[in-house]
Write a structure and sequence with these properties.
28% of the residues lie in helices and 37% in strands. The protein has 135 residues and is an alpha+beta fold. It has a single domain, classed as Aminopeptidase (3-Layer(aba) Sandwich), CATH 3.40.630. β3 and β4 form a beta hairpin.
Length: 135
């Protein structure tokens, strides 16, 4: 299992699987080291991308795994890796969010994230905002 920063050579694979942002923005995020990938036997199986909320708090925008690699501990491994790197960069807090109708909220709670609020966009489920002090 290898966790690393995404590289430009990963762009097409990420763009094929990450339907939430444009290829152009994804390329910028890769060049800014804001995307991590995880490999199993030289095969990309998932990714995590983030930005900085208020330009000061790492905010995990997306964590995703191919279907056959879910619920096997890889998500926890990837988040722990990301949190460790954020701590090494001097950050003491991390944030993320998920829709209230998604299972991800239980995953984040298991990792120690606490619900701190949320909001509703028109015709969307409630978005839960989570925070965690990085140990």
């Amino acid at each position: 299992m290898i966790i690393r920063h995404a590289e430009i050579s990963d762009l097409n694979w990420l763009n094929e699987h990450d339907k939430h942002i444009s290829k152009e923005i994804l390329e910028i995020k890769i060049k800014s080291n804001e995307v991590y990938v995880i490999e199993d036997n030289n095969k990309l199986i998932g990714w995590l991308r983030y930005n900085l909320f208020w330009d000061t708090i790492p905010f995990m925008n997306m964590i995703y795994f191919l279907e056959e690699y879910r619920s096997k501990g890889f998500g926890k491994m990837l988040v722990n890796y990301w949190e460790k790197e954020m701590l090494e960069k001097g950050y003491k807090n991390a944030m993320t969010s998920t829709l209230s109708n998604e299972e991800a909220q239980h995953f984040y709670r298991k990792l120690g994230y606490k619900e701190i609020g949320g909001f509703t966009l028109s015709e969307e489920p409630y978005e839960i905002i989570f925070h965690k002090k990085i140990p």
